[in-house]
């Protein structure tokens, strides 16, 4: 039997592969999708996005630029000197999010189709406990 950490590593790799495939259906990367979800949740300035995503400024700027080029977000200059930017989700971004979310939901249903509610709840408890242990290590 594999160690818990080795099994977790294998699960993580497979999950990332599935996630990459799912986000491609909306013509986005996993990172772009995560950023788009944050913007759709009202986290709409570069400062707020940097805090939420823990991305450095240059990486965040590059990802925002790609989302703008793809037409999935808009930016608006505000403030006295128009240097503050507010980001919002464009219609194309909403469509991409819906496609990806639908495919993600299908994946999740298929993955846990044979699991009882009790088993799913136990997994959530154990994963939350593991996450907390990692934070404290």
TrEMBL record:
This protein's UniProt keywords: DNA-binding, Transcription, Transcription regulation
InterPro entries referenced in this protein's UniProt entry, alphabetically: HTH_MarR-typ, WH-like_DNA-bd_sf, WH_DNA-bd_sf
Record domain HTH marR-type: where: 1-132
Entry GO MF terms: DNA binding; DNA-binding transcription factor activity
PROSITE patterns membership: HTH_MARR_2
SUPFAM superfamilies linked: Winged helix' DNA-binding domain
Pfam families reported in the protein's UniProt record: MarR_2
Signal peptide boundaries: none
Gene3D superfamilies (UniProt xref): Winged helix-like DNA-binding domain superfamily/Winged helix DNA-binding domain
Coiled coil spans: none
Protein name: Transcriptional regulator
């Amino acid at each position: 039997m594999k160690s818990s950490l080795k099994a977790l590593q294998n699960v993580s790799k497979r999950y990332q592969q599935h996630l990459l495939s799912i986000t491609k259906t909306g013509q986005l990367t996993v990172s772009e999708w995560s950023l788009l979800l944050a913007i759709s949740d009202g986290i709409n300035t570069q400062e707020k996005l940097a805090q939420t995503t823990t991305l450095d400024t240059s990486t965040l700027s590059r990802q925002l630029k790609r989302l703008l080029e793809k037409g999935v977000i808009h930016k608006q200059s505000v403030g006295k000197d128009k240097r503050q930017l507010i980001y919002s989700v464009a219609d194309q971004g909403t469509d991409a999010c819906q496609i990806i979310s639908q495919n993600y939901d299908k994946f999740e249903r298929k993955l846990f189709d044979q699991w009882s509610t009790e088993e799913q709840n136990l997994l959530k408890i154990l994963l939350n406990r593991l996450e907390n242990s990692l934070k404290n290590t």
